[in-house]
Amino acid sequence: MAPLLDTFYQSNSLTLKILSLLRYYGVFRKTYRFLKKSQWWSKEELEAYQLGQLQNLLHHAYENVPYYRRVFDERQLKPEDIRSLADLQMLPYLTKDIVQNNREELKARNYPEEAFEYVTSGGTTGNPLGFYYEKGVSRAKEWAFMKTQWDRVGYSFFDKCVILRGNIVKSANDGKYWEKSFFGRWLILSSYHMNNDTIADYAHQIRLFRPKFIQAFPSTIFTIAQYIKDNRIEEKFPTLQAILCGSEKVYPWERELIESVFKCRIYSWYGMSEQVTLAGECEDNAEYHIFSEYGIVELISDTGSQIHQTEEQGEVVATSLTNYCFPFIRYRTKDHAIMATNENCECGRHYSRLKTVVGRDYEYIMTSKGKVILSFASTPSSTFDNVLKFQFIQEKIGEVTMNIVKKSTYTDRDSDTILQTLQRKMGNDVHIDIQFVVDIPKTKNGKYQFFIQNIPLEEKSDGVKS
């Protein structure tokens, strides 16, 4: 469920990645210029745009994507039968299982093979998903949307920025948990080496760098803020204008503490690797504007019925309007959200809004030296390619059992890759034991529980506070 940025940041060579994006600068520039205007359209203009883009997408999918040709034919439908956004309900939901079982049939046949970039979701639900971007183009469009979103707080790619998003830093084994990238404008800190012994250095390095912005997982920057507060450290961050948070839910108590310590506001966004929906907080309030140009969002109840009431929680179902090479139409994200009221936003935008995003919880792994914040959103895509499901269970500090349901293609090499990847992130302070299981049972709510921690509360309190 992690956004594209997590895939982008997983590499240490961020400068090289940015330079590679310049090959598709025309796509970025065209999308960005369009969004600078369209974000101020009326509600009627946005809906008309969505309907036009949806009809284009459906005609394309019917003509070029075998899976959708079969879906339409089985229901005796044609793309022109979808005459309104509400008519989209005539089509079935797309689920993660359907994507996994029909991956090749979901590829558009009018794209050459070299146009497809294989990626996987981070597997934060224990069930990693493989699919395709349009090589270069998908990432360039994503950056245009993110740049438009961050414009709300005055962010520029050339501003000095601290990045705390699950990166692995090359020099970490030598005791240096940070490195600079993007021509010295970005300070990248390793989230996985932050513990009782090192956290003071993290706070100090951020102050010395004098950033204008911080991009972070909420849980990571919260831990630093908690440390500064608990230890009454007089760290000042006078140049900091905003903290940009994504990939995890920002809880109210996290927001309150972080903003009080760093003396600036958090701006959070919601998205996912599948690129079906993107929403970001307004500069005038904490509600999330949903980019109408990015995708069509529906909320459904547990029984699958449409939710039209505001203030009612539902599962997010979304249709991407940006990726034609591998269309996601009515995709069930398994994320839950609450729609805001229909009242106009004071900022002047007429996007639909989410009051809050729920169900994006994160977990901790307790190491022998303290708490390490572990998010698999930034784990390299290939790590879990041959894993059907996985689950972590921790009963003792410093020890973790990883249950794995193997695919038929799984080999001992996959075990080595997984262990090496996790050890690079956690160091030698956690012993990981892989166990193979036939299945991982669902909870009473029908969901897979990705992480189970049964460490007594009094033992947790010995680590870095959360």
UniProtKB/TrEMBL annotation:
<dbReference type="InterPro" id="IPR042099">
    <property type="entry name" value="ANL_N_sf"/>
</dbReference>
<protein>
    <submittedName>
        <fullName>Coenzyme F390 synthetase</fullName>
    </submittedName>
</protein>
<dbReference type="InterPro" id="IPR053158">
    <property type="entry name" value="CapK_Type1_Caps_Biosynth"/>
</dbReference>
